[in-house]
Write a structure and sequence with these properties.
heterodimer; A: 492 residues; alpha/beta; Rossmann fold; 2 domains; six-stranded mixed beta sheet; 15 helices; 27% strand; globular; B: 238 residues; mainly alpha
């Protein structure tokens, strides 16, 4: 809980006021069907210095809510917005772009899109010059120091890890010293060790600065101790989660340290090898070794989970497994068809509708069986409108769609490579996806994760940790664990 | 795949700003870009000494300031054009059409490679802020903003291209790998929305404040010597 907020709300010299006020907010996008409102008569208030968490299923409208709050929904997306929004004690319509910047800043899911120049320092200076003129350098220095990013801001964006860039994006958002900060999935792609802990530190700093914070996050169990109130967005409406339910959530989840399956865990009975890595070493040009002597054998029906912190080389390993990168030393042998779902799931999709995706992928298999199984799977996960353009789905929905499409297309002897398949999914959605993957017993799966939270979703899997270029069995999991029953309190 | 990536990287300005002053870097780049054009236009590329001199100078400066290895890898594209040109000339010769001599062919090819190296030197030698400042000073501020935003996302798009290529290759095999373009279009439109949001929040990059330091005497000497030498070689040598 942020400092003394509850007492301040009681009155006294430091009385807090609602800095965000939303009354009867409706939102729908251009071209959406009649009556297809994403937000429906939404009402809520956020007090000054309050830290609020918003949860909800993927595609429930969380990002749309942020867009509506900041005026981006109309200005950039041409959405139809009805109702009243007040920010920093003034109506949103009355605020100029400059006023909005001073009042509220948003840190997006994808930190890369915050920068309009390749070097963050140049980008931040350019922005600060607009606000402070000759005082720009001082302003940039101040926020860089605050977030501890002085050492990285002068490096090219492409050379920074996701975690570093997220920190720099927060530093940029602080340049105008806004009263409100909104974070859209701040833990996305961040690992348990440096990423999540980094964000907790940032939250502490922002709390000490008296900022009002709104967080939209799926992996929220990590953040429960830092928020004052929790809201659940479901079917276009926002409902405050009762204190007792939040307490149950806090109690129902906790850090666990448990043993996990090592490499000798019982696997499928098949002896048919689908992939073999023998003493694989890899480095880019003359750089450091990203992989050092990696050995791996995968048989038909095996599930292999590779956990590793940001920048450990997980994506490089997947590219080598897919055969696109050649190892500098060692051998990779593939004995069956391989499918790859990248971390950015939109890059998997190539067709103009979900239905066409299924049909194109099934074209060379037993078609009718593949179609019907594919459509049934998609229906089970709520993809009812198959004519829908995948572009209009949320990140989590696309990730699950790409995973389901690939497993349906392989369905049998083959291998799928999944890079962070639970990004943008709630814990329940992640559990449902893992259960579905398990149904396809003949297909081998290699799943790359940067969070240990999801390791337990694969009880029969072999679990490895990729660190310092080597792949070693992960003996213990030390992660935030959730109780499904308790989490269902908040199911959509 | 890596070929297009190497090529695109050559035009991403990343210069750290240390070394020569801005006027010297602009003057040297202009001389080095203009020389192969002049040689090719007015002398049909037939100035062996000036061609060799500028080619060597370009390699030397790229070695001094930037990543020569990367640049040489990027030379693959002009080399492809040169190779195609050679094939065309050989076929023409076989068919009995008039063709340039081997000397003309070699010198023109080196001129093309020099022009390519000089242009990449120009981009690698400037920081994006300096490039934007120059474009704004010559009345192209809108182009400056657009160039900045485009170049900022180029490395990201290249990385996405690699990912889309792998996913599509695995999905459909080599026969339909062209479909990766669809994925890129979908994802680029999402990035475009995010960029529009970023512009809404932060505004387009402003004209930067660039500190233009006067060139040192040695730098003036370098530019003057290069210009005089080029003129001398153009006029007085074969």
């Amino acid at each position: 809980m942020t400092r003394g907020l509850a007492e301040m709300r009681q009155g006294g010299p430091d009385v807090v006021k609602p800095i965000v006020k939303v009354n009867g907010l409706w939102l729908r996008y251009r071209g959406s069907k009649q009556g297809n409102w994403v937000l429906r008569s939404l009402n809520f208030e956020v007090q000054e210095r309050e830290t609020v968490l918003v949860v909800g299923a993927s595609g429930s409208g969380k990002t749309s809510l942020i867009r509506a709050l900041t005026g981006v929904a109309q200005a950039v997306f041409g959405a139809e917005v009805r109702g009243e929004v007040e920010l920093c004690f003034r109506k949103l319509d009355e605020l100029s772009t400059y006023d909005i910047q001073k009042c509220v800043q948003v840190v997006n899911q994808d930190p890369y899109t915050h920068f309009l120049e390749p070097i963050p320092l140049d980008d931040m200076l350019s922005y600060a010059e607009r606000l402070y003129g000759s005082g720009a350098e001082e302003a940039v220095e101040r926020v860089s120091k605050l977030l501890g990013v002085e050492g990285v801001v002068s490096k090219p964006i492409i050379a920074l890890s996701g975690g570093q860039l997220k920190r720099v994006a927060i530093a940029k958002a602080l340049i105008p010293n806004p009263a409100i900060l909104i974070f859209d999935e701040p833990l996305m792609w961040l690992d348990d060790v440096t990423g999540v802990e980094m964000f907790k530190t940032v939250l502490k700093i922002l709390n000490s600065m008296g900022k009002t914070i709104i967080i939209v996050e799926h992996r929220f169990l990590h953040l429960l101790d830092f928020v004052d109130s929790v809201y659940r967005l479901s079917q276009g409406t926002l409902v405050k989660v009762s204190e007792s339910d939040v307490t149950k959530l806090r109690q129902g989840s906790g850090r666990v340290a448990e043993g996990v399956q090592g490499p000798n865990a019982p696997q499928s009975n098949s002896h048919k090898e689908v992939l073999r890595l023998d003493d694989v070493w890899f480095r880019y040009e003359e750089g450091w070794w990203v992989l050092r002597g990696v050995n791996l054998r995968v048989h038909q029906g095996d599930t292999v989970v590779i956990y590793g912190p940001n920048g450990a080389g997980k994506t490089t390993l997947l590219r080598i497994l897919a055969g696109v990168l050649k190892p500098t030393k060692g051998f990779v042998k593939r004995f069956s068809k391989v499918m790859y779902v990248p971390q950015i799931p939109y890059l998997f999709l190539t067709e103009e509708s979900i239905e066409k995706e299924v049909r194109e992928l099934c074209s060379s298999r037993i078609r009718e069986e593949c179609f019907s199984r594919g459509f049934e799977l998609l229906k089970r996960f709520g993809y009812n409108d198959l004519d829908r353009l995948p572009l209009h789905l949320s990140w989590g929905q696309v990730t699950r769609l790409a995973t389901l499409l690939s497993i349906n297309a392989i369905s049998g002897a083959g291998l799928i490579l999944l890079d962070e398949p639970f990004t943008g999914s709630t814990y329940l959605e992640a559990a449902a996806l893992a259960e579905t993957l398990d149904i396809f017993t003949d297909t081998a799966k290699i799943i790359v994760l940067s969070s240990k939270d999801y390791v337990s979703l694969f009880p029969r899997a072999r679990v490895y940790m990729l660190s310092n270029g080597t792949l070693s069995p992960l003996a213990h999991r030390n992660a935030i664990m959730f109780s499904k029953a308790v989490y269902e309190l908040m199911a959509p | 795949m890596s070929f297009s990536r190497n090529l695109a990287e050559l035009f991403i300005p990343l210069y750290s700003g240390k070394g020569f002053s801005l006027p010297t870097r602009i003057a040297m780049s202009v001389v080095m870009i203009a020389t192969p054009i002049i040689t090719q236009t007015f002398f049909r590329g037939q100035k062996i000494f000036v061609t060799i001199y500028i080619f060597s100078l370009a390699l030397m400066l790229l070695y001094m300031c930037c990543n020569l290895k990367r640049v040489l890898r990027g030379l693959a594209l002009p080399l492809v054009f040169i190779a195609i040109g050679l094939v065309v000339v050989m076929i023409s010769k076989l068919l009995g059409y008039p063709t340039p001599t081997l000397r003309e062919l070699v010198l023109s090819s080196v001129n093309l490679a020099t022009l390519f190296l000089s242009i990449s030197l120009f981009f690698q030698w400037l920081s994006l802020r300096e490039l934007r400042w120059i474009l704004t000073k010559i009345g192209m501020s809108r182009l400056a903003s657009l160039t900045t935003a485009t170049l900022a996302f180029l490395p990201l798009l290249l990385n996405n291209y690699v990912e889309a290529y792998i996913a599509t290759l695995m999905k459909f095999g080599k026969r339909k790998v062209y479909k990766a373009v669809n994925s890129l279009i979908i994802h680029t439109s999402i990035i475009a929305n995010d960029v529009a949001q970023a512009i809404h929040f932060y505004g387009l990059p402003q004209t930067p404040r660039v500190r233009v330091e006067p060139p040192k005497p040695l730098e003036i000497l370098l530019v003057a010597t290069t210009m005089v030498l080029v003129l001398f070689l153009l006029i007085a040598t074969p």
